[in-house]
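Quick illustration, no need to memorize.
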Amino acid sequence: MKILVVAATRFEISNVMQKMDDVRNPESDLIFCRYKDHEVDFLITGVGMVATSYFTAKAINDSYDFAINAGICGSFNKNLELGDVVNICEDTFAELGAEDDDKFLSLEEMKLPGISKVVNNSGALHPVIESLPKVNGITVNTTHGNEKSIAKVYERFHPYVESMEGAAFMFVCEEEGIPYVQLRAVSNYVEKRNRDEWNIPLAIEKLNDKLIEVLNAIQ
């Protein structure tokens, strides 16, 4: 199987990359590897929706059997523990719309063409992936760290998690017809910004453990 793993930053997936064989182009942003019977390519896009959309669309092609977006995220829901890995099945471009005084208007409400929500219809299911919590997320340009803005976005979308790339990756895969999954590990809760309460190392450790588990299980 040929698999594309997409991440915003190298450090989020560095542990998995160290386990790969026959690594080619290691210093570039598109690294070619082998793992067991699979060809596994790693794409480092940089942070944000624009970079993720461009570089994923540029790299992805019909030769890939499966694509994985791997990264960390913030959780709005404290039922998720720091380090928990989730399967984001529905993701929304949370800022795509307009303000009408205190009201937010979506593209749908303004009857404008475009896609603001992406649902994973690829059928890329596997027992390891199926065992993960299925959640909805939002994708943002600015991660939330203000109590008022957090309350507003939660009222609109009731998201479990947020990232800066997820919906963009999902959109490209849906358009290209590539089976995919968005896997993210919780590094922090979405609250007034407090880095002392974050645990990025734990999230990365759990994310990489799950990625290896997925790669080991895929036939």
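The chain has a mean pLDDT of 93.
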